[in-house]
Amino acid sequence: MKFFSITSIHEHKLSHWVTLTSKGVTKGNSKEVFYHSFRQADYVTIMAVTKDDYIPVVRQYRPALERYTLEFPGGLLDEGELPENTAERELFEETGFVAQAGLAPLGCLFPDTGRLENRLWCYFAPDVIKNNNSEWVPEETVACSLLSKAEFRKAIENGAFNHALHIALVGLSTIRGYFEI
């Protein structure tokens, strides 16, 4: 069996958010072939459910898609921040909910093994409650909605909720016994 080896790495910082990496790869004695990937911060996403079985989702405009999307709360892992702290922060910032019962880690996924170097940290939060104190200010570009399980299932079925990585969280939550749709 011939093994692959990385023979060169070149980085080009495109912005504060993204670095393009070019890697020279050889297999055995073959000629060097170049592969490209993007380095960016890890993602953190949280699937939350209220005590009365409603799922908080957020609607926001995504320039990459040139449209609004329906997603779970989440964001980028800040340097030096623990993923679970990012999950709690993003849940609060985007929805005003807090994970009073704590977080259940669902795992860490690779969003795209062919092109992205980052990871997705996945969490489930049962029995979240609205934080009604004056600390929370809704984000200007994010709108939170609460969907019943039936509405949530319908949103997946009709493609309104179609973020592949977030649907993976539904699967992980279901497999681990935290959620039943």
Terminal residue distance: 45 Å
Say how many strands there are. 11
The average pLDDT score comes to 94
Task: Output the radius of gyration.
Answer: 19 Å
Report helical residue fraction: 10-25%
Determine the structural class based on helices, strands and strand pairing: alpha+beta
Task: Note the beta-strand portion.
Answer: 35-45%
User: How would a crystallographer describe the biggest sheet?
Assistant: 5 strands, mixed
Order of SSEs: EEEEEEEHEEEEHH
Unreliable runs: none
Shape: elongated
Number of helical runs? 3
What does this molecule look like?
The chain has helices at 83-95, 149-157, 164-175; strands at 4-13, 19-27, 33-39, 43-50, 54-62, 67-71, 74-76, 97-98, 104-109, 120-130, 142-148. The chain is an alpha+beta fold. The longest helix is centred in the middle third of the chain and has 13 residues, at 83-95. The protein is elongated.
Structure characteristics:
five-stranded mixed beta sheet, alpha+beta, 3 helices, 181 residues, three-stranded antiparallel beta sheet
How are the SSEs ordered, and which strands pair?
Blueprint: E1 4-13, E2 19-27, E3 33-39, E4 43-50, E5 54-62, E6 67-71, E7 74-76, H1 83-95, E8 97-98, E9 104-109, E10 120-130, E11 142-148, H2 149-157, H3 164-175
Parallel strand pairs: 4-10
Antiparallel strand pairs: 1-2, 2-3, 4-7, 5-6, 5-11, 8-10, 9-10
